[in-house]
Amino acid sequence: MVTELVLSAIALIGIALVIPLFMLATTVFGPRAGGSIKNQPYESGVKRTIGFVEQKFSVKFYLLAILFLLFDIEAVFMYPWAVGVRELGWFGFVEMMTFMILLFSGLIYIIRKGVLNWR
């Protein structure tokens, strides 16, 4: 017991010393390639930013992503229910139908609010 504790402490201390040593070695001995092309910003395939940096994005992109996650989580809850539907019986069926009706009413609400219209 004590031997295992000592060995694990030595291993942790060794790892704690070796990792920063490797990071320092790559910084000191690693290649340094710089230049005007390397120092330019690159994001998502766009080489140069066009327009102002403070450009406002539409909230609809974020809202659509949140709605996708919300309705994607529905599938995560439905899969275990579908696997154990026989063991759950009628009570599980009624619970899942209540869950589906709640989500469907949320979908109808966001459609009526015009969230999915891109105009």
CATH A-level architecture: Up-down Bundle
Q: Based on DSSP secondary structure assignment, what is the total number of beta strands?
A: 0
Structural class, from helix and strand content? mainly alpha
- Poorly predicted residue ranges: none
Taking Cα atoms only, what radius of gyration do you get, to the nearest Å?
A: 27 Å
Number of helical segments with 4 or more residues: 3
> Roughly how many Å apart are the termini?
69 Å
- The overall pLDDT average reads 83
The rough form would be described as flat
Largest sheet: none
Q: What order do the SSEs take from the amino end to the carboxyl end, as H and E?
A: HHH
**What's the number of structural domains?**
1
